[in-house]
Amino acid sequence: GMKWGNEAIAGYAQYFHLAAWLLPSVKSIAVLALSSVDGDPVAGICYVGNQSLENLRGFVLAPLLIYLAIGSMFLLAGTVLYTVPAASVVACLFYEQHNRPRWEATHNCPCLRDQQPDQARRPDYAVFMLKYFM
User: Fold this and answer.
1) Most buried of 2, 24, 29, 38 (most Cβ within 10 A)?
2) Among 120, 130, 126, 129, which residue's Cα sits nearest to residue 99?
């Protein structure tokens, strides 16, 4: 219904590729245009921010923090989208296993309903619908 199938997503592949390549390309061009690549005096490795703290903060640390935050949000959203339904199913199963002997006893022996009306409860329809939905 939401058109998230493989074919629908594949139709937007060129836009995803554009977004995935555009940001690193712009960052690379900015680093080269500002002559921000410098060498490490100890190891001799060329990198951004070896000599300039501003370049290290602007081109390395800030983007990495942003990417980490965005990735963590997606990870947490995915975890919540899995955890909430799974926890709901587990809770419904605990409800069912806790009450099933009483339900079966009152169903099989109607005399128990008359003798112990407070324990003659019936299964809650909403709990089972929640279990099947989740």
Assistant:
1) 38
2) 120
